[in-house]
Amino acid sequence: KRRPASCLCVTGDGLQIQCYQCEGVNYDCSTPEFIVNCTVNVQDMCQKEVLVKPDGTHYRKSCASSSACLITSSGYQQFCTGRLNSVCISCCSTPLCNGVKKKRPVPSAAAASGRALLFLTPPMLLHLT
Ligand SMILES: *[C@@H]1O[C@H](CO)[C@@H](O)[C@H](O)[C@H]1NC(C)=O
Predict the structure, then answer these.
(1) How far is the CA of 37 from the centre of ligand 1 (A)?
(2) DSSP secondary structure letters along 47-110
C-alpha cells in the first residue's frame, strides 16, 4: 500500500504538515528522503533559507512555528539581496511548500556559476581552448 507523497494530516492532537528538512550546499534538497513530519500544533510552517556564499548556494530547510519563522524572515529581509553573502528566509504553510521553486532557471545565472561547462560537448570545449 502506497502512502501519498505529502499529507495535511489531521491527527488526534491537531494539524500536522510535512516539510523538507535538510542542509545542502549547491543542492536544493527537495526529494522524498528529506520529508519530515512537523510537530503537531507547534510547527505549522515550512522554512527555507537560501544563503549565497563564495563556495556556492547553501539551502537550509526545516519545519518551524509560524511566529518564529515570520520573525526570522522579516529580520533577514534586509540581507535578501540576491548578491554574494545574501540570506533569504521564507516561510510558507502548505505541505512541502519549501521545495524547489517552480520557476525556470535563468540561463545567465547558470553560465555565471561555471557549471554550464558541464553541458558543453567535447567539440564545443575545443573551441574554448
Ligand atoms: C509522518 O507521519 C505519517 C502519518 O502519521 C507516517 O505515516 C509517516 O511515516 C511519517 N513520516 C516520517 C518521515 O516520519
Answers:
(1) 6
(2) EEEEEEETTEEEEEEEEE-HHHHHHHHHHTGGG--SSTT-EEEEEE-STTTTS--S-PPPHHHH
Q: Which residues line ligand 1 (CB under 6 A)?
A: 3, 9, 35-37
Pocket test for ligand 1, best of 1, 21, 34, 37 (most atoms within 8 A of CB): 37
- Kindly indicate the confidence band of residue 76, based on its pLDDT and cuts at 50, 70 and 90: very high
Residue at 41 is within a domain? yes
Structural domain contains residue 117 = no
Domain CATH code at residue 45: 2.10.60.10
Measured by CA distance, the residue closest to atom 1 of ligand 1 is 37
Query: In terms of residue numbers, what domain contains 56?
Result: 9-99
How would residue 15 be classed by pLDDT, with cut points 50, 70 and 90? confident
Residue 84 resides in a domain: yes
